[in-house]
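Follow-up to my post from last week.
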Amino acid sequence: MNLIEARRVSKRFVRKPDLAAKIAGMLGAPVKQAVVHALDHVDLSVAPGEVVGLVGESGSGKSTLGRIVAGLQDASDGEVMFEGKDRRTLDADARKRAYLAVQMVFQDPMSSLNPRLRIADIIGEAPLFHGVVGRAEARSYVSEMMNTVGLNPAYAERYPHQFSGGQRARIGIARALAVKPRMIVADEAIAALDASIQAQVINLFMKLRTDFDLAYLFISHDLGVVQHIADRVAILYLGRVVEFAAAEKVLATPNHPYSQALLANMPRVETGKHAFAPLEGEIPSPLDPPRGCHFHPRCPHAMPRCSEEVPPLKEIAPGWMSACHLNDRA
Amino acid sequence: MSAVLEVHDLKAHFFTRRGVIAAVDGVDFSLERGEVMGLVGESGSGKTVTGLSILGLIDPPGRIVAGSIRLAGQELVGASEEEWRMIRGRKVAMIFQDPMMTLNPVLRIDTQMMEAILAHEAIPQEAARQRCRDALGRVGIPSPNERLSAYPHQFSGGMRQRVAIAIALLNNPELIIADEPTTALDVTIQAQIVAQVQKLAAEMGTAVVWVTHDLAVVSGLADKLAVMYAGRIVEEGPTADVLNRPMHPYTLGLLNSLPVRNPRGRPLNQIPGAAPSLLALPPGCPFAPRCIRAVDICRQVAPAETDAGNARRLRCYNPLPAAEAA
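User reply:
Got it. Predicted complex:
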């Protein structure tokens, strides 16, 4: 059974009309509501202990999906199932456990750690509140968590600003781990770190996975990192999953033209100096996405059908999903 | 061919209440016409301060305490503010990570671009306007004529960075300093910008210093690489040589920590520890405490720069032999 499964999840952000628009509306002018379709019928599943990489550019909805899976935001449509049950239908106790089981690690540790709290409180507050540990053991529990993520427990009384970027990332991870989650949503958790520190934190993520049998939803724009740690990879474009399959398949022989372009544009140390053949065009605005397949204005293989009909996410090989009309021609 | 830019023993120090920070502490390199150099390093390695020094943009409490920077034969260290006004924007231009640092949000693009031209040359308005139009077209902005009268907020992030590049190119400078110009951009947009800069450097003969933390981005773009650590260039050489046969243990460590250089799912080869505080540098080589190849002398005296042959230079007592490093 899947640990987490998102079914037909959509998320819309609606901008409320401002005063001028309200007055214009009262006077009879047509008022168009600005709606951002951040996610459009997204299906995604994560098995226990599995690492799913979520790749996409800005505006693809990857962070929104991560926040919905972690329970920080509600979906406008669709449901998120925890161990096969819709989280909203569970009784209070089971619901609390289902939400605690999915924790989040953020990109910027400086804005996600309260600067006025000591590390001991940042890590220890949630497990104490949720009854994971009693007040008497809280102190030693924090030390244990700090050891787990490679921080010296002697620093428990310090404040976030007294730590380096890599150490702050570790604090964020310890805070997430402290409520004993089954899964961690890591939203660009290593993007702000220097290369040599990045490797240390990736190694920590992988060690924790084996030690605690954790599942990850690993959100990143860095295909190299995702390739290294993910079992399966989902590629998002403008609110839709365009391809979802085992990492070695998607990243070696991508099916969707967007996945192909993304891989071709990924900078690699290997290639040496060469001429670039970049993908033309820009990512369209999610306020006014193109009709049909969202990728068709930039797609080198676009056909008339692509601008009319949304390609469904279909299985093109066992366990390999792709959303492209080209697959129908064979 | 004579060098466009020669930086010799450059030292830029910051005098703070907590002590002197030697952000740049003896940097040497030179660039020829049309050459692209990748200046790579982690936070605090001094790569940005090196770039700012070349533009004379080091403000108190910092100053250039030693060394020389020669741009097309002209000495820049100690130039007066009047001289700088003639140099900046005309002979050397800068592209920042955030294009909004270059662009004034309340002025139209044409106002800003024309100002940059007319500050250096007395040419008719219409001629200046035409040059702006050409510059926007050259960096791949569609319908440049209409876009000229737009405001910066009407552009996307990638387009803004193109405008910033167009402004940098307006006066056909000898040298462009690009400080992490694609770090904030998406992968597909980054590839577009890199392609554009590569093309322009080749066509116009502009030398480029591309400052970045990302080895992968410059690996496809730069002719040569300089790797900085704690204020010094520790290794320099032709891009392919440095990447395929690194000689400094730090360069090797950086390369080996890249996920693509490691078998999938295995722990990455990490460099232990963290970069030292510039206020409390260890004696000897600043990398020695993290170095797997450190010997006794590394902890006592900082290594001087040595010529390692084949246009490569190095600061290391115990470098990797070329064969082993592959």
